């Protein structure tokens, strides 16, 4: 079930895009501004709105650690903002000074692509904010872009209707002509990498003016060639589909349409799950939170709706209470929960009758995980055997949950699934705990843990930005 949590009414013109980091929601609009909200309660940050663009802001995207936000505009610039202060870090002028319609950051935050109305592309080195390469597709407007989860390739979509796959040298690896009749409007990679035998596969969703949402397999062969294969065509909306987004686990796919609806699909089985119709005009933007079962949708009605996926099949926890997120608690490891956190958890699990008993016995997260049938009976004096069994079953569910339900996924080493202390970037573009990737390289014949492809070099680069972000997260939690 999907339910409406709240509606944000702060923009004065069409909402063009929305994007999540682990803790923030950014929205941008035809009113030339961006607005930033805290995802704990969707209150607006003190430095919001962000003003700096001269015309409509078309798109925005966060760096992986959430420290920076990039936005692009009809004014032909890409602005990089600090999410610590709200100040402008850099203003990048797109080559040719054409209106910039799309910008996208790679998952490793090493590169950024911007696409413009004249069909031009610019590839930027994001840490230095320097232009690296330019390219173009003639006689079209670039309106969509998404990086693969390995950060090594990206797909663009245009009003001509084609999807094109590029490498970081702006070499065109594949062109899927007429992917959408009348034009592509959005495209997005799923977060997972599928590998088996000599090939590596990604999933890509695209939508367009033909009222269709399509799911593709992007296949890389061992000899370096790529191809795209259409897997599913989804027809749940009756008018052009303007936006689409995968959930952080790749299980769900959401889209927004000119027919004013938001649709949520089971992405694996291509099954329509929900149709949401609370917007009054075209739905132009949609995004899944990476850390909570939350969807944001933006519209030409000037509003942003926040939705909760109540069955929890998306994201990593983040339950809601009384219309506000308990994400501040859900990002903590259970062992770090306070007594108040335990009380909130009891209420959510419909065990509110035990709140006073747990508080009287000072049960925090550590104590919660240590509960046994004996302690529940002899120390907490819970006489009902059924109630004791239910408590223990719920505690066991907590123990079995992935550790990433407590920590933003980008802070976890892909090998150990533990919070990184010394993150380093390997040749595959992913960040790992230094000791873990060194051990992997020494024992796995220099293959990538994420792609199974050979690492071109064993050189490891310290990821100072990620280390600082992890430090700030630990301090705030």
Describe this structure in words.
- The chain is mainly beta.
- 15% of the residues lie in helices and 40% in strands.
- It has eight helices and 35 strands.
- Strands 2, 3, 4, 5 and 6 form a five-stranded antiparallel sheet that branches. Strands 19, 20, 21, 22 and 23 form a five-stranded antiparallel sheet that branches. It has a four-stranded antiparallel sheet with strand order 1-30-29-28, with no helix packed on it.
- It starts with a strand and ends with a helix.
- The relative contact order is 0.10.
Secondary structure elements and pairings:
Layout: E1 2-8, E2 15-20, E3 24-29, E4 33-38, E5 43-44, E6 50-51, E7 57-62, E8 68-73, E9 77-82, E10 88-93, E11 100-105, E12 111-116, E13 120-125, E14 130-136, E15 142-147, E16 153-158, E17 163-167, E18 172-176, E19 184-189, E20 194-196, E21 199-208, E22 213-221, E23 226-234, E24 241-246, E25 252-257, E26 262-266, E27 271-276, E28 283-288, E29 294-299, E30 304-309, E31 320-321, E32 324-325, H1 327-330, H2 339-348, H3 355-360, H4 365-369, H5 373-378, H6 385-400, E33 423-425, E34 431-433, H7 434-443, E35 461-462, H8 464-476
Antiparallel strand pairs: 1-30, 2-3, 3-4, 4-5, 4-6, 7-8, 8-9, 9-10, 11-12, 12-13, 13-14, 15-16, 16-17, 17-18, 19-21, 20-21, 21-22, 22-23, 24-25, 25-26, 26-27, 28-29, 29-30, 31-32, 33-34, 33-35
């Amino acid at each position: 079930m999907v339910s409406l949590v709240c509606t944000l009414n702060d923009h004065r013109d069409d909402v063009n895009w929305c994007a999540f980091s682990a803790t923030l929601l950014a929205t941008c609009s035809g009113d030339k501004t961006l607005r930033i909200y805290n995802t704990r309660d969707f209150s607006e940050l003190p430095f919001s709105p962000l003003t700096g663009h001269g015309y409509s802001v078309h798109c925005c995207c966060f760096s992986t650690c959430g420290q920076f936000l990039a936005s692009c505009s009809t004014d032909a610039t890409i602005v990089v903002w600090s999410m610590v202060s709200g100040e402008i870090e850099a203003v990048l002028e797109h080559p040719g000074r054409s209106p910039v319609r799309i910008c996208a950051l790679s998952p490793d935050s090493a590169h950024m692509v911007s696409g413009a109305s004249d069909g031009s592309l610019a590839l930027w080195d994001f840490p230095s904010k320097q232009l690296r390469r330019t390219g173009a597709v003639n006689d079209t407007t670039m309106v969509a872009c998404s990086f693969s989860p390995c950060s090594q390739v990206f797909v663009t979509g245009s009003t001509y209707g084609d999807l094109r796959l590029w490498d970081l040298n702006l070499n065109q690896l594949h062109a899927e002509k007429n992917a959408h009749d009348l034009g592509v409007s959005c495209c997005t990679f799923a977060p997972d990498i599928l590998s088996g035998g000599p090939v590596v596969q990604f999933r890509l969703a695209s939508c367009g003016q033909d009222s269709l949402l399509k799911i593709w397999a992007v296949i890389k062969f061992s000899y370096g060639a790529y191809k795209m294969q259409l897997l599913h065509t989804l027809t749940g909306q009756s008018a052009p589909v303007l936006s689409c987004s995968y959930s952080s686990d790749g299980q769900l796919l959401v889209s927004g349409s000119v027919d004013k609806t938001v649709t949520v699909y089971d992405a694996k089985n291509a099954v329509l799950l929900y149709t949401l119709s609370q917007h009054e005009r075209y739905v132009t933007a949609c995004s899944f939170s990476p850390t909570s079962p939350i969807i944001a949708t933006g519209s030409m009605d000037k509003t942003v709706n926040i939705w909760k996926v109540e069955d929890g099949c998306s994201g990593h926890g983040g339950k809601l209470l009384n219309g506000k997120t308990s994400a501040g608690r859900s990002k903590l490891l259970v062992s770090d929960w306070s007594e108040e956190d335990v009380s909130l958890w009891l209420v959510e699990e419909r065990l509110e009758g035990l709140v006073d008993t747990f508080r009287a016995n000072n049960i925090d997260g550590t104590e919660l995980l240590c509960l046994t049938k004996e302690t529940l009976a002899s120390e907490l004096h819970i006489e009902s055997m059924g109630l004791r069994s239910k408590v223990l079953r719920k505690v066991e569910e907590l123990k079995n949950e992935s550790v990433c339900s407590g920590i933003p996924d980008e802070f976890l080493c892909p090998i150990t699934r533990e919070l990184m202390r010394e993150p380093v970037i390997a040749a595959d573009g992913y960040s790992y705990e230094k000791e873990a990737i060194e051990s992997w390289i020494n024992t796995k014949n220099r293959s990538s843990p994420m792609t199974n492809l050979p690492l071109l070099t064993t050189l490891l680069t310290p990821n100072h930005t990620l280390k600082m972000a992890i430090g700030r997260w630990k301090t705030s939690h």
